[in-house]
């Protein structure tokens, strides 16, 4: 191994000492030390005000950006006429800000989607009305631009409510569970493209566009459900029930998708002619500011060829507007950067090796490259009336984020004031922004600023957390065996004694584009309990993680898991070389992709990890979904050797160290099958291991006493097998 480098990174701030204190695990898990979050801001058209739901979920209050003072109450359950609910879960406003859509009794569908009972509220009349009088909860209720109509989905079909007349009509009628979905995505689109709605209104209110998803040929997946407790599913007391949904594993059939338009006046439904093959994805559709231009965004199945078409909703004819190709993959979140203006649109591309912003006209001709440099843009916020573009980037350091503005000549001004991690929320006019700042030792501070970055007021400081004696991150870098410099941090026990050797628990996620090593408040969680009890906690972001350009993140292509594991092994060996680390007592821990990396790391090394904890791990990429897996690995048919080499299942006989594997039986993301198949492989390889199963729990494994039990189980395992 080459000589290591151990330095404090520039964005790390020094800390002062604290008095003795012990964190109680139950208090940590219960949320006693959680940071206070500010309720979501909904900016108003005037650029000077915003609305928020009250903390008790009973009111919508209008505030001034500049002063923070409440200037009006737009809705109140106590005074609204004919209001049938006492609290509500969320809301949206019509473009003219005269009407509000409220929803209550929300219940989750998958990770992001939900069903709820929607209501309309006319501010002038102070009157609440149910959106629909027909049975069944609704999804994705969406105002037309003029606020006179609402489109929504119920039981996989799209409906249109004309508020002026009180009439409801069906736009589609072919929706069937696990077969046809209209206006909403299937499971894999929602999970991997972060989309819950595929509805888009034309700016002139004449047309509603939507995606029809046919998942008939996608294989079904069945999850057994048991009675359990908290909640108790009494119908399954003696015989298990099942939850059945469509889940395409790598290399199998995906849903077929097509774009349709509905003309409000004629009620005509027309299929659009989008020139893509049957295996392509359509993750987004969105009208531009021209009602004759529907932007249809597509990816080929390998997800390395992005195309955006302009489709005429009347003729159905599509024209290619822009194309972006990559030898590896196109990150799907670039679609969320695309913003349409009268002069064209903003586009994000990594074609230079780093993510940067580009301004194109509506003919697809480049007007200018907005940002450039050996650093990544990590968010685009908007453009103001003076022509300034606002964005977030990692220009200072991969560990930091700052907010900037740039003019048309490329002059950049940093408008966030403190080094660390900044995330902004601009209003559409880009006249004000709310900034959430933290660093490794400073809990989130939420402030309001004008467009020049001047701080106007503080909303939340989380002052309760400031003086707690938490273990602080100490950042470091070192070189792996390939000569790559990797970023990491360690957290030492508060009563750390120089010269004493400590056991180490390595925590990591390691998934593509992710980052855990950040100069950002990371919450007081169970790792604080570990340091309180004499462990050193360490974290390293290996190859494949984000914030460092494509050469670093794309090095894992078609062999996802190999380099990530090699870097965790190199990190363990580096940590073991430090004078205060007991190299014979190092454990590795991870959840989801981190659980997968735990298994790979323990199977690709010998004598490095004494123990490991893998929670909800993938154990073979053939078991995971098409969109995520094939983005990084291509299909098993194309890359059979890659799937074999990256499979913990195939490496079970090589597992070295004590293992605890944990799963929830109702995990709809990383199926319980992964753990069952892997445990069988360990049995047949005569490898002893420990297992913890949580009944009816999903990928997050939470609810009632579950999390406390989980972390108690993990801690007990580490005490027995590490310390």
Could you walk me through the main structural features you see in this protein, from its secondary elements to its overall organization?
One of its GO terms (biological process) is proteolysis. Residues 1-19 form the signal peptide. Residues 527-723 form the Peptidase S9 prolyl oligopeptidase catalytic domain. This is Dipeptidyl-peptidase-4. The protein has 723 residues and is mainly beta. Among the domains are: 40-170, Neuraminidase (6 Propeller); 470-721, 3-Layer(aba) Sandwich (Rossmann fold), CATH 3.40.50. An eight-stranded mixed β-sheet has the order 36-37-39-38-40-41-42-43, sandwiched between helices. Strands 13, 14, 15, 18 and 19 form a five-stranded antiparallel β-sheet that branches. Strands 1-2-3-4 form a four-stranded antiparallel β-sheet, with no helix packed on it. Strand 21 (294-299) and strand 22 form a beta hairpin. Mean pLDDT is 95; it is low at 1-20.
Structural class comes to: mainly beta
How much of the sequence lies in strands comes to 35-45%
Tell the overall outline.
Answer: globular
Distance between the termini: 27 Å
Summarize the structure.
Helix content is about 15%, strand content about 35%. By secondary structure, the protein is mainly beta. It holds the Pfam family Peptidase_S9.
């Amino acid at each position: 191994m080459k000589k290591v480098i151990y330095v404090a990174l520039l964005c790390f701030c020094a800390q002062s000492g604290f008095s003795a204190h012990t964190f109680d695990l139950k208090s940590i898990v219960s949320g006693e030390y959680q940071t206070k979050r500010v309720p979501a801001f909904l900016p108003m058209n005037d650029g000077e005000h915003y609305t928020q739901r009250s903390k008790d979920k009973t009111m919508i209050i209008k505030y001034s950006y500049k002063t923070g003072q409440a200037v009006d109450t737009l809705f109140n359950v106590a005074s609204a006429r004919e209001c049938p609910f006492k609290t509500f879960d969320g809301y949206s406003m019509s473009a003219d800000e005269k009407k509000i859509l409220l929803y209550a009794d929300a219940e989750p569908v998958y990770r992001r989607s939900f069903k709820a009972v929607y209501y309309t509220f006319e501010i002038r009349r102070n009157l609440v009305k149910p959106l629909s009088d027909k049975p069944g909860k609704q999804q994705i209720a969406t105002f037309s631009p003029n606020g006179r109509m609402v489109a929504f989905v119920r039981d996989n079909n799209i409906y249109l409510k004309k508020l002026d007349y009180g009439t409801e009509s069906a736009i589609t009628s072919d929706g069937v569970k696990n077969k046809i979905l209209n206006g909403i995505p299937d499971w894999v689109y929602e999970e991997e493209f972060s989309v819950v709605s595929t509805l888009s209104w034309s700016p002139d209110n004449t047309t509603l566009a939507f995606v029809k998803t046919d998942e008939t040929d996608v294989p079904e997946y069945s999850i057994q459900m048991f009675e359990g407790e908290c909640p108790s599913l009494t119908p399954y007391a003696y015989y298990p029930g099942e939850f059945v949904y469509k889940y395409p594993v790598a290399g199998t059939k995906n849903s077929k998708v097509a774009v349709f338009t509905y003309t409000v006046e004629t009620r005509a439904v027309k299929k659009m002619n989008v020139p893509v093959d049957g295996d392509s994805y359509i993750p987004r559709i969105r009208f531009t500011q021209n009602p004759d231009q529907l932007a249809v965004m597509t990816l080929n199945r390998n997800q390395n060829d992005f195309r955006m078409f302009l489709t005429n909703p009347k003729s159905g004819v599509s024209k290619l507007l822009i194309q972006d190709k990559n030898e590896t993959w196109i990150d799907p979140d670039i679609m969320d950067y695309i913003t349409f203006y009268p002069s064209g649109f903003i586009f994000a591309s990594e074609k230079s090796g780093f993510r940067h912003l580009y301004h194109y006209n509506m003919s697809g001709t480049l007007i200018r490259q907005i940002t450039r440099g050996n650093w990544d843009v990590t968010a685009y916020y908007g453009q103001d009336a003076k022509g300034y573009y606002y964005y977030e980037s990692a220009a200072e350091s991969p560990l930091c984020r700052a907010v900037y503005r740039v003019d048309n000549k490329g002059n950049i001004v940093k408008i966030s004031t403190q080094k660390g991690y900044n995330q902004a929320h601009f209003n559409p006019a880009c006249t004000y922004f709310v900034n959430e700042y933290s660093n490794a030792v400073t809990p989130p501070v939420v402030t309001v600023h004008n467009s020049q970055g001047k701080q106007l007021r503080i909303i939340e400081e989380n002052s309760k957390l400031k003086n707690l004696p938490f273990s602080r991150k100490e950042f470091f870098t070192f070189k792996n065996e390939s000569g790559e410099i990797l970023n990491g941090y360690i957290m030492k026990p508060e009563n750390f004694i120089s010269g004493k050797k400590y056991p180490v628990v390595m925590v990591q996620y390691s998934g593509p584009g992710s980052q855990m090593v950040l100069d950002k408040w990371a919450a007081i969680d169970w790792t604080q309990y570990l340091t309180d009890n004499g462990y050193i906690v360490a974290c390293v972001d290996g190859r494949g993680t984000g914030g460092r350009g494509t050469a670093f993140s794309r090095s894992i292509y078609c062999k996802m898991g190999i380099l990530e594991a090699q870097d965790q092994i190199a990190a363990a060996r580096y940590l073991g070389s430090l004078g205060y680390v007991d190299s014979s007592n190092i454990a590795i821990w991870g959840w989801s992709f981190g659980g997968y990396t735990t298994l790979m790391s323990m199977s690709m090394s010998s004598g490095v990890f004494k123990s490991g904890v893998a929670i909800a791990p993938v154990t073979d990429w053939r078991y995971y979904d098409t969109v995520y897996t094939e983005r990084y690995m291509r299909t098993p048919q194309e890359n059979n050797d890659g799937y074999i080499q990256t499979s913990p299942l195939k490496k079970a006989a090589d597992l070295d160290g004590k293992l605890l594997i944990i799963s929830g039986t109702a995990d709809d993301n990383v199926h319980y099958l992964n753990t069952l198949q892997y445990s069988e492989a360990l049995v047949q390889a005569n490898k002893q291991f420990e297992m913890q199963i949580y009944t009816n729990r999903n990928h997050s494994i939470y609810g009632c006493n579950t999390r406390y039990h989980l972390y108690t189980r993990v801690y007990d395992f580490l005490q027995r097998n590490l310390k």
